[in-house]
Write a structure and sequence with these properties.
Keywords: Signal. By secondary structure, this protein is an alpha+beta fold. It has five helices and four strands.
Length: 149
């Protein structure tokens, strides 16, 4: 009995919002919790842009299909984006998926979260979808609050 309680406590202590797990790993994401500073603002700006029909809403995919789609979009995004800094973390706020971009190197999907002084670009999957589909530009996304650097 004591061993099972100890294991439960240890597992709860080990679960943190800064872990590598994202919603594609089956992690539950509380939509009302800010997973990274500024991410709630990105989520609210995305919902506002969808309700004002400035962007289209992306259908939700879970598990491996969702991760494959997000990975493909991220690859297209970094390939086409000339405004990206040479070294930056990219964070999808709705799935809590971290990626690491460094110019001249392959994009690392499902990377570790950044340290406190690293550059971060935040956006939602709907914003990413609309960017790679060329429905909005990088500058428009920034002006709508869909991207935060």
């Amino acid at each position: 009995m004591k061993v099972s309680k100890l294991l439960l406590v240890l597992s709860l202590l080990g679960a943190s919002s800064t872990s590598w797990a994202c919603s594609y790993d089956g992690q539950f994401n509380n939509p009302f919790a800010e997973s990274y500073p500024g991410s709630l603002g990105i989520a609210l700006a995305t919902q506002r842009a969808i309700s004002q029909q400035q962007i289209t809403q992306t259908n939700k995919l879970e598990g491996q299909p969702g991760l494959r789609r997000a990975s493909w979009w991220l690859q297209l995004f970094v390939k086409r984006s000339t405004q990206l800094p040479n070294d930056i973390h990219i964070y999808l706020v709705d799935s809590q998926l971290w990626s690491k971009y460094h110019a001249g190197k392959p994009l690392k999907i499902h990377s570790k979260p950044p340290s406190s002084d690293d550059a971060v670009l935040m956006l939602s999957e709907s914003a990413l979808d609309n960017l790679v589909s060329k429905k909005i530009t990088f500058t428009q996304a920034i002006n709508m609050g869909l991207i935060k650097l």
